[in-house]
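Q: Can I see a sequence and its folded structure?
A: Here is a first one.
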Amino acid sequence: MESRPTEGTSIDIAGDCDVHPRVIGIALKILSIFQVGTVLNAKDAKSAVNAGAKFLMSPAMVKDILDDAQGSEALYIPGVMTPTEILSAHGAGAKIVKVYPVSILGGVRYISALRKPFSHISMIASQGITIDLIGDYIAQGASSVVLSDAIFEKEAMDHRRFNLIHQLSQLAVLRVNEAVKRLEFELPVAYDFSVGPTN
């Protein structure tokens, strides 16, 4: 089954969850989904879930977190880099994987190449993605993108320019919605080219 982009958008709160409460408030107000990464152990994962996280991400697959997430309301998305890692994570129970670091591996072209053998596995593109590339990633098969650095710019964070973060968040949501609508419009109609018996 071909995976499709999910409704809504999320922002990845990277690091050790020590993020200014107002920043989290802005993200929740706009996006309604709170996601935490980078989570590297089961203890931090549980703390994030208790804080209200619906998604957890790691740069690699952490088996303890994946095991704990089974049956949980929070979705754990492990990081993968190679085809082998994608298949292994999926086989271990991951419903979605995060391709990281995608820009170093080839960016949009790498996602496009992975989609061919792994069209049944939902993949999130992560690392080095700018807002203007959202459409390209989704068009080439990414179910979603991580935009931490693109939205939580270092200068804006250092100077607590929350209005800028708010504007970038809104722009990201707009670009995602445009990309999803464009993809839905461009999806080909399925035709049956099978040849039946002839008389």
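Q: Show me another, different protein.
A: A second, unrelated one:
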Amino acid sequence: MKFNYKLIAIIPTIILLSYLIDKVDKQNDIYNLPEDYSAWKINIFSSSLYPVSVQKIHAINVRKDWTKVLMGSGYSIYTTEIKKIESIFPDYNGYGIPLNSKFASEFIQSDYGRELPEIINIYWTSISNTRFFVTKIKIDKKIANVIKTKIVYNNGNSACDPTNIDIGLLPNGDAKLWLSCAGRFRYLGKIEFSQEFEKNSDGFGPEDYKKEQREIQNRADYFGVKLFPIPYENLDKTYIHKYKIDD
């Protein structure tokens, strides 16, 4: 048996070229985060008077043919307790969304990947008015570029990676979208829900949320307000520390 020594000699070169081509492809792919970036995750926020329950979140990359079921607990009636919020925002009125990691329902990837999804599907319940939604968020190239643009602060001496995808959910099904890191937030806009159902994806309907609604009514009594009709102009308020991007 004769060995082809010339072929054996070029195998390392072929392997090296394959590695370099793969590395260049990843660098040129807008959906791949730099190696020094934190893994992306999703934070869900809601108001204290109109909390939500997230049944599941799917992150999808169509081009790379993968779907991730994110891990987390999305029952915000606990993360939006009034006393907790008032400890950070003393002037809290119950309606607005408190943007602070203490009040977020966190959903993470099992593999802590650095490849961004193209689509995020959120299956969730607005508890106060028992409406059941699916919200589809598209991470287009523009948003991917914003995620890959560091937030600079402390007069240019500090920077962070805005890989927290923050989503505020409202009782009419709308979702507000921010990107954040180190307590700094970039607001990207509002997104309408994609679908609405009579029950949520776990099969629960309006009759299954009576206990939670009693707790929410107690919160309304605390603030001396009525839950309905929903004052959507009050829900537009966001509570956030007064950082500037460049401070």
